[in-house]
Amino acid sequence: MTWKTDTHTGWGRVHSTTGELARPERQSALLRLTETITAPAIGMRRSYGDAPLNSDGRAIDMTRLDRIISFDPEAGLLEAEAGVQIGVLADVLAPQGWLPAVMPGTGFATLGGCIANDVHGKNHHIDGSFGDHVESITILLAGGQRKILTPGRNKDLFRATIGGLGQTGVILSAKLRLKPCVGDVIMVTEQRAADFDAFISLLDNSRATYSVGWIDATAQGNALGRGILEEAETGAGLVPAPKRAKSVPFNAPGWALASPIVKLFNALYYRRVPKTGRTLVKPIGDFFFPLDAIHNWNRLYGKLGFHQFQCVLPVDRKDDLREVLDLIARSGLASPLAVLKRMGPDVGDQPAGMMSFPQEGYTLAVDFRNRPGAEILIHRLEEMTADAGGRVYLAKDSLARETRIKSMYPEHATWCDIVNKADPEGDLKTDLIRRLDLRTAQ
């Protein structure tokens, strides 16, 4: 096993680093590698900021450790290595009547990454987060010890690992409880919402298994908060041909996402859905992972990259959400990619992980091209989120400040104690952990 110097970035391409990467192809090679070296594990680097970066250090690329270890089609249980991609699992499982219970917005996310960030999907209001469906995790601790974690065995370490940003050890594999699906197509109903109140009403009253809203983050005045809600259920039938993948071959010029162009695009996109709504049949991947059909879509933001801000605000803070949307719209900095979803209460008696992002309420995600004004705006949005009792999603963050982040996560101090015992030398720290000083209790 050799280490190779590599320059890489998070998906937003604002932060980059040069360091040494190892790419083991078998767990045996990984175990030999970690006999003398402890380094953080990374996957497809789809976290937007600096979570997958370790500046001037080493990291273990887990993407070649992507094998399915076992699958029980009767019980709906699957065990796989940490490097397997969620989209691959969906493709393999859907024809057999199963899906990963929770899927993020990209199928390129790895199993290990989904656990380390406790990702959520378009069904959080019903099924909770990814960690709620993890039966067990096999992890390699900093000292080289291999340990199995479950909700009842090594419980504290299990909860510190889910959403724990890779700070407890290298996730080798995990066993998941799957979700039954009717077939490998999905029936999608689209409805227009003319303003904020209409959008929130649609979200609150939706009974669909999957729901997600595109929101026009440039709309102001009476149109503030307008958008399109998609509700979906899996189905069986003739599978439409998936969209042919396209690629963005170069960095887009700065004017491509200028405010007038974004406003025009959003107005046209909003009107593509009739006032009466419509229902479509799509391949499963087209609904769950819409942007995966455009390879290197992050180049649309230009060579300087972009920031994504994602927050969740409590369900009783709708007025604060309205103010957040108003500030974004007045800034003129938003891109066409803005998503609003409803999050439900914890599935169990507590969050899946100590540092899990989801809480009951409304989660908003908006992209901003990396240009003057974006950082100031995002810091203000961060303040508003903290004041409203909400949280910022660390898998998307590239700018947050440590004092606010720590106060957003009530179990942070307990998590610090556990991870510092699991990795006393701090060998698993990444740029995100250092930037936010996350392993120091407030």
UniProtKB/TrEMBL annotation:
Keywords: FAD, Flavoprotein. Residues 14-181 form the FAD-binding PCMH-type domain. GO terms for molecular function: FAD binding; oxidoreductase activity, acting on the CH-OH group of donors, oxygen as acceptor. The keyword Cell division does not apply. It comes from the Bacteria. Residues 1-21 are annotated as: Disordered. Pfam families: FAD_binding_4 (PF01565). SUPFAM superfamilies: FAD-binding/transporter-associated domain-like. This is FAD-binding oxidoreductase. It comes from Halocynthiibacter styelae. The lineage of its organism: Bacteria, Pseudomonadati, Pseudomonadota, Alphaproteobacteria, Rhodobacterales.
